[in-house]
Structures are given as structure tokens and as C-alpha cells.
Here is the input.
Amino acid sequence: MKQALIILNPSVGAHVTGRLREALAVHFGRAGINFEIYETQPGVQSAVAVQARVRAGVDFVVAAGGDGTVAAACDALVGGTTPLGIVPIGTGNLVAHELGIPCELGAAVALLAGTTRSRCIDAMRVQGRLFVLNVSVGISAAIMAHTTREEKKVLGPMAYVATGIWRAPGFRPRRVAVTIDGATRIVRAMDVVVMNCGILTRTIYPPGADVRLDDGHLDVLVLRVRGVLDFPRYFLNLLLRRPAAPLANYYQAHRQVVIRSLPPQEMQGDGDIIGQTPVEIDVLPGAVSVLVPDASGK
Here is the structure.
């Protein structure tokens, strides 16, 4: 009989938590899967507790929450062979969207009880913490800091666009040194974004890189918008889905990205403010195996 560990973010609320427990009892019960629910706590790193349970013997781990819960689960599983399932019941759920995982609670649980295949996704490590979406320095950090949970619930990824349009004219470019796999570029940039999620990239940045969760590298955007007069052209390119070079330049990182600036700038990771520059971002290709729908339909 299979054993699953469910990592639950209780901030989703009692109603959603109840629905999750019911769906697990029904679908996992039919499939003969035993499960244990581990609830995360704010400010408490859950990786050690999850790793202990994995060593005790589970067939797969399920992240029940948003992208933060997914990242926390990945942090516990990176480097191992235990696969990760996702039940997307958070606010953004961008990883699930990109991997084609159903966003309806019951359907996501039913998928994990049925036939799946594995996709190995990339990640990045910053200051001992793992991230799966992006890490950035500049205006995007300000946008993430000022986009509320309620706005993300209503607008989804477009909430970041709305906040960016509102705050961008008051932001000024800064001098930064960006080192990608040992090669350093010194630029005046409005934003430096290390990206791993294609959906987020396609929503709030102009085209220029085919960003995917499982391509074995990270993509780096250096946004060179110089001032107020460049913003109309930038947002027009964004709305029309046109490349924005030379306002936006993309690079690939296969090993590490280092960002330095004077004065230090605020940085965000997966939507949370996590500190200031300088920052070292290590690339983790194929970090975790994720259970996704079986395209063959078998």
C-alpha cells in the first residue's frame, strides 16, 4: 500500500482544508493510498520534519497550498528521488498552471490517485533557501512587496501588471553588477530578474526568452528602462507582446548569478521580500521530480 505525506498550508482556511481532507479520504481511499497531513507553521522551516518523514518511508509528497508551499516541499526533496505532487489551493498557483496540473481541488487530488508521469523541474537556491519562480532586484521587488493577497486572488498574475503601471513612473534605474556564470556586466538597470516560470514571464515581461520550469537553466532579464519617457514604449511592447530590446535583454544562467549594487537594493524571491543585495543565486537543474498529468492518457 502506498504512503503519501501531505504538506498543508493551513492559511488556506478551514473550509478549504475540510474539502481537502474529504477529497483525500475519497480518492486516496479508493486507490489504497495511506496519507499523513503535516501542517506548516508561519516562520518555521519545515524541511527537516518533512525529510525525516521521507526517510521513514513515503512514496510521494504532496504540497497542498500555493507556490510558497510548493517551494518549501521542493526544498525538502531536492537531491532525492521522492516525487512531489501538487494540490494548488493557494493564491497564485503558477507552478501548477505551468505544469498543467488541475486547479480544481478534487481534480488535483484525483490526478494524484490515478495515472501520472514525472517532470523534473529546476529551482534556485538563495541564502540557503530554495525558490521555484523567480528572484529579482529592482522595481519587481517593489511590485511584489506592494501587490496584496486580495489583489492576487481577484486578478491573478495581472495584479502585478496593475501594480507595476501604478508604481513604475516613480522608480529610477540603479547601477548594478550582474555576474552570470562568471561573466560580469555593469549596467544601469531598472530591474534584474532571474526567472524560472514561463507563465509569470509571459504575463509581466515582453517576449524574448522561452522560459520553462524544466529546461535545465535559469533566464536572466536585465531591464534597462532609463526613465519616464521609456515606460510608454515598454508597456506598449508588453501589451502587444513585442520584443522590447534594447530596453530588455535576456541571458541564460547554467551555474550561478551574482547581483551587486551600491547602495544595496531590496530583493524578492517568489513574491516575498528576502533581503538586500549582494546576492548569490545558485542554479539547481532538475532539482525535483513533480507528478503531472499523463499526456498519453493511459
